[in-house]
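ok new one. same drill as before - structure tokens go in, u give me an amino acid for every spot. 681 of them this time. try not to just spam alanines like last time pls lmao
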């Protein structure tokens, strides 16, 4: 990525810029490395530097994977195949080119696997003791980046302790030295209180001057340790393993699973003692991960972006999968070489391995080539450039919050815009750690709590607007929380491109605002991510759909305004509906014009079926107004209604999705020659 990727990257980069604390569990090692990279590397933007850092780490990881398989099996070809096939698979490649914690996690899992092999092969008491100390340091460091590495560490630690006991190294003085190395690695967690005490970070989670906050953050108590979202949904171990099996079969092919099974059998039956010992540990790590993480991960039936969240955590077991499969390939090659003793055979296998890796690169290159991906830069700049000075921008969720965090902090762009995370505003430390640094002049009347009946020491959105709207223009780039009904009758959220702006009720004429003041997305200058290329689990896909949905926000706003009017204001209702139709038709033509010009994928039509549905519905409403006063316009709207609802049916790939409370209406309209006889009209 030349710029900012989606997801957590924006937050991690902005946090590292000021040496702040990232989301739980804090990722202190990544933050320290990123802070040094940002401040010491002389070239590029913050995002480019940290994307480069991840790529370097990925290169070292793949090299280590190659060495591990080569030393286990004695085959260069197997090492090349294992490292290349794994490293250039789509998911590994994708997470190797963006500034995120998962690439560093892959490094430590590979390092633990390599440390297991070294420990198994260490000679004598001194050798075992030395490798135990090195391994403890690696394990401690790994836990400062990704907690799930403990699922690899646990079976390894039991094995190491048993081995030390066998070698008479289980006395306190030996175990203390090993444990000390582990604590040395874990010491990076001191970054959390150091940041809270000495650094005035503009974005940071928690007040870690308090032991209770430190513990809560470390254990991810707000989410649940090893749980991925703060939800009560629960998937089963079998569910999660089947998702993993399906994904890994797609990413790495079923051949890797076959080699995985073959390798286990060969190593345990024909391998030497060290190979059997290491293989048992590899299997234990792989199994422990699936048993524990698969039981606790709480994304049920993952689809879309939630599938993307889950697939990142399949990287760790897939490393074991590829290492074991690679070891199997190596042992098969060694067996063949003992039967066919031709020196050129070694080079033939290396050539075949290079060819297979080359195929993997060619197969995934188009999906993983992000050298022109500036989508989140365009998104952020489009919003920020249209905001007046000293604006408050309320956000929530990774998609918008982290993008704006990065550009205002990581790139120091439009630093006058006050980006406030509504999730943070519900935490007491927001007012202790962040408010004095960022917004000392903004009034926060207590602790934010969405809802209608709120009193001090809490405040809701209405109370926040009461205190600040006269002093600052206030925008929101997220949905108004469902519980937040406090503004009804006092304030309105007017569409503002992808975001919305707050006004007092009846302060602004809706049609004048939409015609003369609301910024629109120029789809020629603001390229939409290609939905043919990006899968629904990617942030680029989420961005594309958000941009397209923003095209209909003005019309949705006018529709709601019309529906809320009493029947005795039918003239104003009709005016709003007519303007709504004008906006809907314009956005519809805007999108399909770009489909015809090749700017937007033709398949985008499958993702705007709600717009086809809305246009048919609105045309039917306008028909009911015109049928007594303007027969020409009435017939025009009848034709439009049928046109859009027919397209809705034709484009809908899953007809079950259509069968809502309007399904019968749609069918009656499409079958009728004269709409005036239908009772629904």
């Amino acid at each position: 990525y030349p710029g900012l990727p989606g997801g957590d990257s924006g937050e991690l980069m902005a946090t590292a810029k000021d040496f702040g604390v990232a989301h739980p569990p804090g990722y202190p090692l990544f933050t320290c490395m990123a802070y040094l990279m940002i401040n010491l590397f002389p070239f590029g933007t913050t995002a480019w530097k940290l994307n480069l850092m991840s790529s370097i780490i990925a290169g070292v990881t793949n090299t280590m994977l190659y060495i591990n398989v080569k030393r286990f099996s004695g085959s260069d070809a197997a090492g090349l195949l294992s490292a290349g096939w794994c490293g250039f698979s789509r998911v590994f490649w994708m997470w190797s080119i963006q500034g995120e914690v998962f690439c560093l996690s892959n490094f430590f899992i590979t390092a633990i696997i390599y440390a297991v092999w070294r420990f198994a092969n260490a000679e004598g008491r001194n050798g075992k003791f030395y490798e135990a100390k090195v391994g403890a340091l690696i394990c401690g460091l790994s836990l400062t980046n990704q907690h799930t590495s403990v699922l690899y560490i646990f079976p390894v630690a039991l094995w190491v302790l048993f081995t030390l006991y066998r070698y008479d190294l289980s006395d306190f003085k030996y175990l203390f030295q090993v444990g000390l190395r582990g604590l040395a690695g874990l010491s990076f967690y001191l970054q959390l209180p150091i940041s809270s005490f000495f650094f005035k970070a503009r974005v940071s989670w928690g007040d870690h001057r308090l032991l209770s906050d430190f513990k809560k953050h470390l254990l991810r108590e707000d989410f649940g340790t090893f749980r991925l979202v703060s939800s009560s949904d629960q998937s089963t171990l079998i569910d999660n393993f089947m998702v993993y099996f399906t994904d890994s079969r797609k990413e790495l092919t079923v051949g890797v699973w076959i080699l995985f099974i073959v390798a286990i059998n060969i190593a345990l039956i024909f391998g030497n003692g060290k190979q059997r010992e290491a293989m048992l540990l590899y299997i234990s790590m792989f199994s422990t991960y699936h048993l524990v993480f698969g039981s606790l991960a709480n994304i049920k039936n993952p689809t879309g972006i939630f599938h993307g969240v889950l697939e990142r955590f399949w990287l760790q077991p897939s490393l074991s999968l590829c290492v074991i499969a690679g070891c199997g390939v190596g042992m098969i090659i060694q067996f063949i070489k003992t039967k066919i003793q031709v020196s050129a055979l070694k080079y033939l296998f290396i050539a075949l391995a290079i060819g297979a890796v080359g195929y993997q690169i060619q197969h995934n290159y188009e999906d993983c080539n992000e050298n022109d991906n500036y989508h989140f830069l365009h998104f952020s700049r489009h919003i920020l450039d249209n905001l007046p000075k000293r604006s408050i921008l309320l956000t929530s969720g990774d998609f918008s919050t982290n993008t704006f965090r990065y550009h205002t902090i990581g790139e120091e762009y439009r630093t006058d815009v006050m980006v406030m995370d509504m999730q943070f505003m519900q935490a007491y430390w927001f007012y202790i750690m962040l408010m004095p640094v960022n917004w000392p002049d903004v009034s926060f009347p207590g602790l934010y709590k969405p809802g209608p009946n709120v009193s001090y020491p809490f405040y809701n959105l209405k109370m926040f607007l009461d205190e600040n709207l006269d002093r600052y223009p206030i925008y929101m780039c997220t949905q108004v929380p469902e519980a937040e009904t406090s503004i009804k009758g006092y304030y309105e959220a007017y569409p503002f491109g992808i975001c919305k702006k707050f006004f007092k009720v009846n302060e602004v004429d809706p049609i004048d605002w939409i015609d003369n003041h609301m910024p629109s997305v120029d789809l020629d200058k603001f390229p939409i991510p290609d939905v043919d290329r990006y899968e629904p689990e990617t942030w680029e896909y989420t961005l594309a759909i958000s941009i397209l949905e923003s095209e209909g926000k003005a019309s949705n706003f006018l529709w709601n305004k019309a529906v809320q009017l009493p029947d005795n204001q039918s003239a104003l209702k009709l005016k709003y509906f007519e303007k709504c139709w004008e906006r809907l038709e314009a956005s519809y033509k805007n999108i399909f014009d770009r489909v015809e010009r090749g700017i937007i994928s033709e398949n985008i039509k499958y993702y705007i079926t709600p717009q086809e549905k809305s246009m048919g519905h609105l045309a039917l409403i306008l028909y009911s107004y015109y049928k007594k006063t303007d027969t020409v316009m009435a017939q025009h709207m009848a034709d439009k209604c049928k046109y859009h609802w027919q397209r809705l049916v034709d484009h809908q790939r899953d007809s079950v999705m259509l069968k809502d409370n309007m399904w019968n209406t749609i069918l009656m309209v499409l079958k009728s020659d004269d709409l005036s006889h239908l009772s629904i009209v």
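The radius of gyration is 29 Å. and btw Strands lie at 392-395, 418-421, 447-448, 458-459, 474-476, 491-496, 499-504.
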